[in-house]
Amino acid sequence: MVPAAKLQRASATAAGKVILLGEHVVVHGHPAIVAGIDRGVRVTVVPHGSAGGAPDAADARLGQAIGLATRLLGLGPCQFEVVIEGDLPVGMGLGSSAALAVALLRALAASAARAPSDDELAAHAHEIERLFHGTPSGVDSTASTYGGVLWFEAGPPVRYERLLLPAPLPIVVALSKTPHATSQTVGSLRERAARAPEVYQPVFVAVAALVTAARAALFADDRAGLGALMTMNHGLLRACGVSTPELDGLVEAALAAGALGAKLTGAGGGGAVLALPDGPPGPLLATLRAAGHDCFAATLGAAPASPAAVR
Ligand code: MEV
Predict the structure, then answer these.
(1) Is ligand 1 within 6 A of the CB of residue 261?
(2) Would you say the CB of residue 139 lies under 6 angstroms from ligand 1?
(3) Which of 118, 195, 215, 228 has its CA 20 to 30 A from that of 13?
């Protein structure tokens, strides 16, 4: 049996994410472009006096995640509470469960004076994500671990590449009023694609072409081109059945307010829309807020969270 680790109080943070292009097709073997955002989750591990029990968790799935994190880090039986804080909207397709997994792993590792590599953390977080989402590609846990703007392929093996942008990219995230449903939208699209591969596979290939073109647009700082590709990606996500009238309405509202492009981000079925402002995000934010939408701005690719990485 693994001996109980001696824990000290420790806190750690991890970033949320937006998928610029390529959600869903990334589950089917195609690339996606994902970016960490400067909103995230902080986890604090507060050890109890004695070892030997299960970690405290009000929520059963959170309890499973904490138990799995403890096992993956090889900590043995230990007793502690976790305090979860943060400014990342939950259930909006912004990677809150991956950020929770990464922050939890980092905090637990720090608490037990362990120093797993980022690659180990990302792999462990992917395991924990399976508890929440069934068959995740790993794009969320990778983005949350490394931050920055990443080209991601699920493999196996997982491959990611940091994309160094010529200039930071301002974006606006508009929240719908409906939580997203990752395992439901991923599962039902998988079923539809399995029933009619001749219909869905060409659409997935078309999205992959948009992702490749978006990479070139990002490197060229061609924001109008990138925006057009994002809006096309939304159209194909809608064609795949993972958008909703509410998300379509948010996309239309962003475009009518002058966005260069807009699309749902994440799994869809609810969640958030990502819009590319034509210049600083203030005017787009103001117009969307005046229309009653809850939104915030973020800057992608501003400061890489960890050194350049290619795997
Ligand atoms: C969720 O953020 C992105 C999806 O492609 C699912 C996944 O890749 O695990 C919808």
Answers:
(1) no
(2) yes
(3) 215
Model's pTM, two decimal places? 0.93
Long-range contact pairs involving 125-129 (C-beta distance under 8 Å, separation at least 24): 125/98, 125/101, 126/158, 127/68, 127/72, 128/65, 128/68, 128/69, 128/72, 128/101, 128/104, 129/97, 129/98, 129/101
Answer yes or no: is the C-beta of 137 below 6 A from any ligand 1 atom.
yes
Q: Which stretch of 26-40, 41-55, 99-113, 234-248 has the lowest confidence by average pLDDT?
A: 41-55
Rounded to 5 degrees, what are φ and ψ at 302? -70, -50
Return the residue matching tokens 């940091």.
162
Ligand 1, residues 129, 137, 265, 274: which to mutate, most atoms within 8 A of Cβ?
137
Q: For residue 146, give the H/E element and its range.
A: helix 139-146
Q: Counting atoms of ligand 1 from 1, which one is nearest the CA of 135?
A: 9
